[in-house]
Amino acid sequence: MANELRPCPCDIGDRFDYGGLGQEVQVEHIKAYICKPPAGTDKAVIVIHDIFGWQLPNTRYIADMLTTNGYIAICPDFFVGQEAWKPSNDWASFDEWLKTRDAGQIDKEVDAVLKYLKDQCGAKKIGVIGFCWGGAAVQHLMLKNPHLKTGVSLYGVIRRFADKHSLLHPTFFIFGEKDDIIPLEQVTLLEQKLKQNCKVDYEVKIYPGQTHGFVHRKREDINPQDKPYIEEGRKDMINWLNKYL
């Protein structure tokens, strides 16, 4: 991960002035942000936040974007009330902080959210997307959860599940070419392992010149040369969900 001299680029947009179109709800033991389209639908997407937590405005912006494309979108607090990482925190303490926030230990929360989506929202086809920490969580879920139809992992931390590639569901992996946290050699190895082991549809795509966190970057931090790739990443994500949900 990054150090205190070069902050994690996930926090770009931490002060994004965006209130959200949805509402906060209680789902069993966790809180969640949910947004529903005006017209009824039986399709839903679980949005898994990055280290900056479920209240990050950028993440809610993406959830609302999913809703404008016809999906129920829900972003639960997968830290279950524990404090999200703050840009001002000391990166020397990050590994200790992460020990109680394992992207591979979210199954109880996902089961609660799936039940809520089915019972309270009428969802029948459910997918998942996630950013960074949440991208690693997506890979975890695609390896084991039979109730999800598809997933999109956006700059998910590969090393978290580096030895597991037998995906159950179609999965799309989005990476930036200039990501300091996920070197391209890790992406290449992921592709090789998926080719050898994966029996379902998958795609690994690298976006030229892009850094970590690029798809959910706030508007005012988008450089003109990056904008086409950010828009392409968002469009690709929606197209993948449309194809498999």
UniProtKB/TrEMBL annotation:
It comes from the Eukaryota. InterPro entries: AB_hydrolase_fold (IPR029058), CMBL (IPR042946), Dienelactn_hydro (IPR002925). Coiled coil: none annotated. Keywords: Cytoplasm. It is found in: Cytoplasm, Cytosol. GO terms for molecular function: hydrolase activity. Residues 30-245 form the Dienelactone hydrolase domain. GO terms for cellular component: cytosol. Pfam families: DLH. Belongs to the dienelactone hydrolase family. This is Carboxymethylenebutenolidase homolog.
